[in-house]
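Quick log. Single chain, no ligands specified.
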Amino acid sequence: MVEPMQIPILSAEPIWFRLDSTSSLFGSIRGTVLNQNEESLEGAEIIIEGSSLKAISNAKGQYTFDSLSDGHYTIHISHTDGMPCELPLLVIEKGKHYSAPSAVLSFIEIQTEKPILYLYPEQKQEVTVEIEYKGRLTHTYPKYQEGWKITAFPDGTLVDKNNRSYYALFWEGVPFEPLSAPDGFLVKGSESISFLEEKLAVLGLTEREANEFILYWLPRLEVNEYNFIHFAQQEYLDLCELKLEPKPDTEIRIMMVWEAFEAPIEFEQQILPPTPIRQGFTLVEWGGSQSKLKKKLL
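-> predicted structure:
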């Protein structure tokens, strides 16, 4: 469970700012909710602790509570997939109206992590690679500038125009829509190695490629009691299209969608496709995405 995040206050007094005073028998609170980029956050839920009072922030991130009696109030603010926060204690006096400090909610972005591309032509070959990704690229190496143009060798070595060598191309990004996991495998963290060695071989990775996959993901998987793992198929191909010139004869693209659980869950087991046969110019890609899966605990 995520612990409430306290909003830092730069000055001790005043924590809340009085806007005006009237002869009303009630007070009010006005506030604003922002995301970590300090942009207005619509749809945040604001609750006053110990009451049935609730508000939803508008398109400008604003909310208001009217008709508040004298008393001490604590406000809790949350948003789907955001880190909830709690605003400092407010003492309301009748007839006074207060502006609360801005609440800033942090969000964990679901990423397409560590996709790396291996290219194995049958002979030395000039290759152009373009990524059409339904999302925002965050990291690339070598630097992606309207595509990669490299020289590929049969052993997998890649050389750029500056004669620098690489063993793979790398990219990461944040998708507009996260990948789903309708079925998969429930794996104990302690059994991650044997599971990955078996399934990655079925999916078509060589031992060297599987070794690099496991080296990256094992520390993230092994520490969990259980991991639900799904290997995305067509949905991932729709999310990220790779355009190569010349076009590969064989494409092996693996995207692992996973989430950690503390206890067993209900799930439907995934049926993997037949192991691909490498023929001609071969493209291999692997990556992963930690998701927020909605699965029912047993």
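The radius of gyration is 26 Å.
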